[in-house]
Amino acid sequence: MTTHTAGGRLHAIADLFRSDIVGGLLLIGGAVAALIWANSPFGHSYEALREFSFGPEALHLHLSVEAWVADGLLAVFFFVVGNELKQEFVHGELRNPRRAMLPIVAAVCGMVVPALIYVGLNATDPDRVSGWGIPMATDIAFAVAILAVVGRYLPPALRTFLLTLAIVDDLGAIVVIAIFYTDHLSFPPMFAAAALLAVFGYLQRGQGPAARLNASALPNWVVYLPLAFAIWALVHASGVHATIAGVAMGLLMRTVPLAGEEESSSHRVEHLLSPWSSGLVLPVFALMSAGVAFEGGLGAVFGDTAALGIMAGLVVGKTVGITGGSWLTTKITSAELSPSLRWIDIAGMSMLAGIGFTVSLLITELSFPGQPGVLAHAKAGVLLASLLATLLAAAVLAARNAHYRSLREARAAR
């Protein structure tokens, strides 16, 4: 009886952590704690924790705690997101190419416009213009979490739009880092990772060796866990941001059950990993990533054109680029907006895409080596822009959430 009760409690806790709202609140709590800690008299201990390094040197994995979280732990979240997108592409909203096209084009426009705004404000300053890539990125973890907190009654198509846009945005940002902000890429581990990804995809087909694996008494994790780690480590060694490994494996998951299966491997893994992603990965990621210390006060931040370019790019550029690009695309191509959405929903979601954080902070570090003052102001600009984007998006999306809630209640009353 005791074992049965304990098992029931664990299932209840897991179900609680599967909620986007709970995960979002934990994420926000981690970010707030990081900000307070980093700007407190104990801020040095926060930096010491983030910079503490461990791991095998031989595998090029002697990394700081911050890097293990941002490159390693966050790959689990990206795997869950990639897996969810695969289900949408095969069975859901994105199986219609005319609707799938829209968030992809929107993501591109939402990268180009912020970069142009930044360059416009910093074109004459060679010390700062190199930061043009900073406002291009959307932090998918924070954006999805905020959407969950303020938008319980919003159409599911809006979340799918945001996920697709943010994934394309992240891929674009990774390409920008690889081409413009990386000294060199290592192609042997990149090709090796691609080969192992092909093996991963083949095993998902459930044919040949994969079929024998499924039929054997050997647990699948004994094969897939080392394979997934090897893929991640090789992608990391190649110089490409390692979270791309999580996205790639998620997109390769099988969404159709095999003969004799009650559910597909995609749904099984989603059920298993979602609580860990929401309850552990995202809060720890927020705790290690959001601790930006304000140096020199807000006056110094607003007096720096790098910080102003970042804020204008993320807050204004994302909104104009995504909303305008989406609307224009529907006018000149066959792309279409989901019937369940309105343009004001897209505008609110595009404001939410102005949350920069992880990749923006990464590009900030790469943009201003040897310029600690500009670096500190740029980081503060990312933080302030993300906060402002959150507040603006929350105001719009909360109003839309109330609208959709009243519609649902009206239908239920009939």
TrEMBL record:
One of its GO terms (cellular component) is plasma membrane. It is found in: Cell inner membrane; Cell membrane. GO terms for molecular function: sodium:proton antiporter activity. The chain crosses the membrane at residues 21-39, 59-81, 102-121, 133-154, 161-181, 187-203, 215-235, 306-329, 341-363, 375-399. It is a multi-pass membrane protein. GO terms for biological process: regulation of pH. Pfam families: Na_H_antiport_1. Keywords: Antiport, Cell membrane, Ion transport, Membrane, Sodium, Sodium transport, Transmembrane, Transmembrane helix, Transport. InterPro entries: Na/H_antiporter_dom_sf, NhaA. It catalyses: Na(+)(in) + 2 H(+)(out) = Na(+)(out) + 2 H(+)(in). NCBIfam families: NhaA (TIGR00773). Belongs to the NhaA Na(+)/H(+) (TC 2.A.33) antiporter family. PANTHER family: NA(+)_H(+) ANTIPORTER NHAA, SODIUM ION/PROTON ANTIPORTER NHAA-RELATED. Na(+)/H(+) antiporter that extrudes sodium in exchange for external protons. This is Na(+)/H(+) antiporter NhaA. It comes from Thermobifida halotolerans.
